[in-house]
Amino acid sequence: MKVTRIAYSARLNPGKYAALVEQARRLGRVRSEVWQRYGSIAGVGSGLADRQVRDRWLVDGTHIRFGVLANAWKETLRDAMADIAANLEAAKVDVRRAISRRTNDPAERKRMFTALKADQWASDPFLARQMRKHWKRGRNRTHHQIVVRADKYNTAVDRRGLLWLAVPGLEPRKMVRIPLSTTVAPTGTLRLILRSGRVEVHYQIDAAQMRSSQRPCGDRRLGVDKGYTEALTDSDSQPHGVGLGVMLSSESDRLKERNRRRAKLRSIANSAALRGDHAKAHRITVNNLGAVKRDRQAARHRARVRTEIFTAVHEVVDEAGTVIAEDLTKRFTGRKKLPKNINRRLATWTKGVTAEALKSVSERRGSALVLVNAAYTSQTCHHCGRFGRRSGDRFHCTSCGVAWQADVNAAINILHRAGDPDIALHTPHHVVKQILQDRNDRHRTRLPVQDSSPTTAGRRANYPNCSAMSNE
Ligand SMILES: [Zn+2]
Questions:
Q1: How far is the CA of 313 from the centre of ligand 1 (A)?
Q2: Are 239 and 323 in the same domain?
Q3: In a domain, 146, yes or no
Q4: How many independent structural domains does the chain possess?
Q5: Distance 324 CA to ligand 1 centre (A)
Q6: What are the TM regions of this chain, as residue ranges (predicted)?
Q7: For position 324, what pLDDT does the model report?
Q8: pLDDT digits over 374-406, tens only?
Q9: SS3 of residue 311 by DSSP
Q10: Based on the domain organization, do 345 and 394 belong to the same domain?
């Protein structure tokens, strides 16, 4: 598994930055050309490889007009072809769905899946039609990136301990030296992204090399419930990532206040422009409504939340060899956009990070991640199985006469779902409710019968869950 790391430039000379921006702009034209020529069915879709395209360009002289070094355009061409291929693969997901809808015949399905995989869909009318429908012709939007191959750059540490990255510029043998704000040298292929006066150096490392990947996992089985005050609560009543709630609410307050101020400034700028005071409007737009500071603050907040959540998951995996969790990816895989309300938007995003952390940490540290259907796990009592009432962080069960800690109650229910023979991951919500209700009804009728008469035995055999539940 690969993990992306980002290094940042530190106080980069504006002249060097401008030179890099110019190089990226020219390489953006290379990308546009690749998308223009090969971004459709005639290009990658017909099985054309980046090497063949490269050779064609060398023959017809396409590369000359871009005014960049040979390695730079070749790497960019390869990168753009990979983008197109990814675009194509995304379209195939929809086509696969269409195939499943079209036929139930396993042999026919298999034939079509295979043809699709091997890019041999052009000869099949149905597949060709579906591909044309789902593969929207894309275009290049990347004009601020430079891809540098591993053997084309070098790093060096100066006397003050500062790390410098030297990458090729627009002239042969003239490297652009970039001071970095880290002491860890990037490795492998680099993607330089130029953003608001700063260079971001993106590169990938093998997750196995990360220190945290070498930590062994625990040997217990733990259920976890995602929360808002804390990132996770486990079935042992232990909270993890307790700083999350404060982080999210203070960020939400900050964003609301900032958006309010920006809206006010924007209206002042607009009315100044209407009056004809364009100098003032321009001043406000440039000095007070910029994106640099805003984007950096947002990135910092995201990084803090990610660290909190990943740390929480690591804590759970320290104890657990098997983590049982709700499938958090389920509800937002669709095309639904993030909600407009800030609190809800942060919550949705946090859920995605938690899902990613659970998957990534489990993979790296060798623990098993079991995803379960979490329907009604926060509304039923883990002790008796009845429906109860949640108020704030308490869960009241009138049947047991007990108030449980709501997150812990849910985490224990989630833990039990892993062994539930009736409730599968995709069992619909209303079916889950029915199953739980039936169990409660049965429980009630069974309770007074204490002997092992045939009726009781028969009931037990018909409903294996009751015994399974009370045994756990
Ligand atoms: Zn109860």
A1: 29
A2: yes
A3: yes
A4: 3
A5: 22
A6: none
A7: 96
A8: 999 999 999 999 999 888 889 999 998 889 999
A9: helix
A10: no
CA 466–ligand 1 middle distance (angstroms): 14
CA atoms of 326 and 385, how far apart (whole Å): 18
Check whether residue 15 and residue 82 sit in a common domain: yes
CA angle 109, 112, 115 (to 5 degrees): 150
As a whole-number percent, the residues of the chain with pLDDT over 70 amount to 90
Boundaries of domain holding 446? 389-471
Residue 380 lies in a domain: no
State both tokens at 47: 């099985």
Q: Between these two residues, 228 and 61, which has the higher pLDDT value?
A: 61
pLDDT, mean of residues 96-113: 86
Considering 303, 335, 366, which residue would you say is the last residue of a domain?
366
| Whether residue 279 has pLDDT greater than 90 | yes
My answer on whether 318 and 441 are in the same domain is no
Distance between Cα 461 and ligand 1 center (Å): 24
What global pTM score does this model have?
0.67
Q: Mean pLDDT across the stretch 179-190?
A: 92
Q: What is the DSSP string of 380-396?
A: B-TTT--B-EEETTEEE
- Is residue 12 in a domain? yes
Distance from the alpha carbon of residue 386 to the mean position of ligand 1, in angstroms: 6
Give the pLDDT band (50/70/90) at residue 135.
Answer: confident
Same-domain pairing of 270 and 351: yes
How much is the pLDDT for 448? 53
| Ligand 1 geometric centre to CA of 384 (Å) | 4
Ligand 1 center from residue 430 Cα (angstroms): 21
Q: What is the CA(377)–ligand 1 centre distance, in A?
A: 13
- Dihedral sign from CA coordinates of 355, 357, 358, 359: positive
Query: Does residue 41 form part of some domain?
Result: yes
204 phi/psi in degrees, rounded to 5: -115, 140
Alpha carbons 437 and 435: distance in angstroms, whole number: 5
Q: What is the chain's mean pLDDT, rounded?
A: 86
Instruction: Classify residue 422 by its DSSP letter.
Output: S
